[in-house]
Amino acid sequence: MTGARDTMELREDTIRTQYDAALALLTGFDHAPRLAKAAVVDAKPERSPGIGTRPMFRSTTPGMVARSTARPGGVRLLERVEGLGDGLVSPVQASALHGLRRGLAIALAMSETFAAQSGLAELKKANLEGRLPEGKRAEFTELLAAEALTTLYTFANTTAFLLAPSMGSTTVEVGAVEEILTDNAPLALQGALWELDQDIALLATDEPRLIAVIAAFCEALMQRVALRAETAPRLQSFTGGAWRVEADMLSIAGFKPARASKGGALTIQFKKPSEVVGNHIAKYQSLRLAKMLMAYDFERKLNPFAELGGFIFTFMGDGKPGTGKTTLIQMMAGLLNDYCKIAGYPFRYQNFSIDQIDSYQGKSGQNAKAFIDNVLDPGVIGFGTIDDIDQVAGKRGDRQSSAGQQEVTAVFMGAFAGANTVVRGNCTFGMFSNYPENVDDALRQRAGARFLVDGPQSREDYIDILSLLLGKNHAIPVGSHDLFAAQEIKRAVAASFEGYSKPHEDGLLKVWDQVQGQIGTLDTLAKLGSYLKAIQQADARFTGRAIKNITDAVKVRAMDFELPDEWMENPELFLFKPYDEKLTMIKGLTTPITVEMVIQEINRYADSEFRYADKSDEVAIEGMVRDFKRQEEAKRRYLEGKA
Fold it and tell me: What pLDDT does 619 receive?
């Protein structure tokens, strides 16, 4: 994240020398608020009945009335955090206190470094000895304020970074930070810790909320300090350099937040795009979606693609067993993991599987809700998958579905397209199945995009996959074939999209021919609407949500461009740009919507619905035929035995 800056090391011994000072700040100090008002008032014991504790004296001296009359109060963060438990410090409390102490120590070390590099250290020494020249006083004051801003931001940035792995799905709103004092660095830290103590007392009702309150406070403090720093002088020594704390893998680069991964390391086996043979449209859309996610702006907490309407929030990949659904998941997760490492963004991948269906009532729904919340976390780039969703989520009204599967279906439906669903563009959910016809209709229609995972199709595909899987431990000649030329993505995708100029499924093809015969070529909105109505008459499940999914897919096609690889490899070119600049850059790449795009997306989506319906009916018919045959055979054997 440091771009062209020369990164310096913030030495560990320099940080550890500040541990005593940091612990002293956590143990206790007195602070009288100057800009904020105390929200937590510790009750004082009465001196005797009827005599209050409030001071009765009010100064009549001119100018003294406007001065704050707040008395210094004890700030004891150590006691405040430990008081949330049952007398024994828990791992969460210890993690919070260690993070705060480490954050304070690094901030104090950064303060010393800034003072040494900016010349403030010499001015401090001269001031203490009473030999500070009068002409240097303005510079001295400005440097003290710059040091205070540097120290505050480093404390908030470091603490948020260190506590990120402990963050769950709980979020807390703390409001704006008011007690930002810039007289000097120690007073600035005392003011910030005083306000943090207030927020913990008011909002941290349990341990998960404790971490959430500290993290939210740090984010709010960073925002306010960064805003103040835009107009503050004497900050070049901090903004022009970059520092690295190796023990924490922390990068400090001016007033830019460091991002830490939230959660454990990924154990998934990644695949490269070159290892995916066939599945051209699904592969292409996965590649583009991975780059779309990276456009997410952590400060605005919004993705320009989500605002423009070309973002895929949910998608369904369906195909026969062995066609490459798992490989697609591994490819997309691998791309996101690599992109996030380059940009320094936190990435979270989670899969919801059948082992999270619990026999206890309500537990399956809780597991599904936790999965959704973890992926939706606006502080991460998230990718959530539900593999074999036909086994995980049950059809409503299906007697063979367990209560847990029904709970999961309800949670997913509410999360993917419910009244409270907010699409920020930081995450996407992929549902995969070999038997999508067994997925509840309403849940399946909540998949905004459809990825047909049909595996290798052509002769060239089968040669490519054979060569890929054989590896290099052989001397068999390739023969008359250009390896992987058929996997050239743009050419393959163009051919795949053109293939949907007419429907593929027999049921939809009949509707297409009928409408074309009645009204001719579909070249106006009225004719396209007539085609959609004819599809709805043939399949009643083709509702308004289907139209929304189609139009969303068309908008994605309007953004039928791939963000340049250079933008991912060098984050300064795009990823670290301000939100409005990202939006402008993306708008400049969009293409107009054409009739061909609309027809192709209608056919792609409707084909999938007809395919699901036909398979569902066919499976049901085949099951009934088998039952009738078994009954006939059983009856025949019974009668033979009786004779």
Answer: 63
Burial-class residue 151 by CB neighbours within 10 Å (0-12, 13-18, 19+): buried
Write the pLDDT tens digit of every residue in 252-289. Answer: 989 988 866 554 445 556 666 666 666 677 788 788 88
634: which 2 tokens? 């059983």
**Which whole number is the average pLDDT over 185-195?**
96
Taking the alpha carbons at both ends of the chain, their separation in whole angstroms is: 87
3-state SS, residue 432: strand
Number of helices followed by number of strands (H, E) in the chain: 24, 10
How far apart are alpha carbons 410 and 429 in whole angstroms?
16
* Residue 177, pLDDT score: 93
| From 39-43, 298-302, 589-593, the region with the lowest mean pLDDT | 39-43
Of 11-25, 135-149, 457-471, 551-565, which range is least confident? 551-565
Rounded to whole angstroms, how far apart are CA atoms 525 and 227?
49
Give dist(CA 202, CA 74) in Å, integer: 16
DSSP 267: -
Amino acid of residue 614 = D
Which pLDDT does position 346 carry in this prediction? 87
Residue 228 has φ and ψ, to the nearest 5°, of -65, -35
Q: Which residue has the tokens 């395919």?
A: 611
Q: Mean pLDDT across the chain, nearest whole number?
A: 83
Q: Is the dihedral of CA 493, 566, 551, 326 positive or negative?
A: positive
641, with CB counted inside 10 A (0-12, 13-18, 19+), is: exposed
Residue 442 has a CB neighbour count (10 Å cut-off) of 15
Q: Is residue 57 pLDDT above 50, yes or no? A: no
- Angle made by CA atoms 93, 99, 104, in degrees to the nearest 5: 130
Structure tokens at 177: 């930070």
- Cα–Cα distance measured from residue 180 to residue 184, given in angstroms and rounded to the nearest whole number: 11
Tokens representing 170?
Answer: 């709980």
Which of 163, 158, 122 has the alpha carbon at shortest distance from 10? 158
Tokens of 507: 């049921």
User: Cα separation of 404 and 344, whole Å?
Assistant: 38
| Element at 581 (helix H, strand E) | helix 579-587
- Which residues, 6+ apart, have CB-to-CB distance to 287 below 8 Å? 273, 332, 335, 489, 562
Regarding beta strands 427-433 and 314-318, do their DSSP bridges make them parallel or antiparallel, or are they unpaired?
parallel
Instruction: Please state, in angstroms and rounded to a whole number, the distance separating the CA atoms of residues 120 and 127.
Output: 10
247 token code pair: 């023990």
Which tokens sit at 33? 């608020």
- Between the alpha carbon of residue 536 and those of residues 183, 406, 545, 589, 599, the distances in Å are 70, 27, 12, 34, 15
Asked if the model's pLDDT at residue 231 lies above 80, the reply is: yes
Tell me, what's the pLDDT at 273?
67
Interior/surface letters 378-406, b for 16+ CB within 10 angstroms, e for the rest: ebbbbbbbbbebbbbbbbeeeeebebbbb
The CA distances from residue 124 to 83, 116, 143, 460, 475, in Å, are 39, 10, 10, 75, 74
pLDDT at 615: 56
What span, in angstroms and rounded, lies between the C-alpha atoms of 447 and 621?
27
- What was the pLDDT predicted at 470? 83
CB 189, CB 22: distance < 8 Å: no
3-state secondary structure 84-147: CCCCCCCHHHHHHHHHHHHHHHHHHHHHHHHHHHHCHHHHHHHHHCCCCCHHHHHHHHHHHHHH
